[in-house]
Amino acid sequence: PPQTAPGDAGRGPYRALAINPVADTGTGVEGNLDVGRSDETLDPRKNRRVVPRLDVDPNFGEFGAVPGSQPLRADPQKVIDQTTEALRQDNTNAEYFYLRAKAYQALAKVDNAYADYCEAIRLNPDKPKFYIGRASLFYQLNKPMLVDADIKRALSVDQALPRQITFGYQPYPPDVKWSGDGPGGN
Question: How many CA atoms lie within 13 Å of 81's alpha carbon, on the beta-carbon side?
Answer without folding.
Answer: 5
